[in-house]
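Possible race condition, two jobs.
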Amino acid sequence: SNEHIVYVSPDGDDDTGDGTQENPWRQIQTAIVKTKDYNSKLVTINCAAGNYNNLSLTSYINHGYQLYMNGDVITTGGEFIVSNTDLTISGTSTSTLSVTSTGDRGIAVNGDMNFIVKGISTLNITARRYGITTIQLEGGCVILSCDVNITLTANNAHSGVSLFNHGRLQAGSINVHSDYGVGYGLSIQRF
């Protein structure tokens, strides 16, 4: 099929869940791991409002993902990584996605792919040195069609958005804050 829909919820269970609406998984990452071999062009993860661990989409996946948020979603933990796999984040028009990373980068986008955030109200990112980084997007791009607020917490914060080697960005409002100062709001570097 062209699309496969699975469900996650803070009330779900990663061990006994099966990804259905009646029996969802607990973590977004579990949905990614369990659907990586699905034979479809797109996997939609229907995400109930609540708290989740940050996710890592890696190059072993052979289809795109859509994360649809039914309310406010908070992800925490290591860096939120998207690598060589298209990801679209969408949801209700009042939804907010808050990404809190314990690593240097909030959201890391790597490889020839697209990372799109649309249809939600706000994307909030908290990280140590970089809000969003892109590395070697080649033909891909980052599209942010919502308000973006980036808070950097390290005293050596680098930039709100860093585009390394072929990164492309299309965005509206991006606000960058750091109590220590920020080197750049937007950094574009070619290797």
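Job #2 (started ~2 s after job #1):
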Amino acid sequence: EVLRPFNAQCIMSDGYAAYGKIIRETKPETQHASCLVHWRREVLKAADFESQCTYIEQGSFKKAVGTYSERLSKSDPIPILNTVLMAVSKVFAEDKSVARTEEETREDYLKRLKTHREQYEKPYKEKIDRLMAELATMTNLKPSGKRYKVESADKTFYSDAVVYYFNHKEELWRFLENPECPLSSNEVECT
């Protein structure tokens, strides 16, 4: 009921599955976008970022580099996850580089933003898709109706990030097709 009087082209949410259903049922003309930052948090958790930082903070930079080097040679998912994180950072940097000028109309700005996203951000999305597909194979991701899951016996430390990505992939990248959609919900969550 809260959404009915609300008029928007795009509604951003985190990955909670019920939001998509509510938006589809109450505002079918409105696009649903998922927050890229919420998914990135799952990737950060999976990439064991905190442990790597702890090694470095304790002066064990060699240990951090050594651990990472070992993982590179063993087809470990950590380097793939770190590459995904770098690509996501590039997407945010590219998007931030496009600011509306004072003399620009909103329509002109949105057109320029859409073109920029298509040219500079979409290639990162395509790379991330390939990397996440590789991780999906490694974690034995399977379709389950309209969603994806990993069976309990196949769960890995990075399964949640993979499942989240494939269950929200279309919504995570909605901003590429609709310049009205932001990349994340940070603006409204941080105010």
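The beta strands are 10-13, 31-34, 142-144, 147-149.
Logs attached separately.
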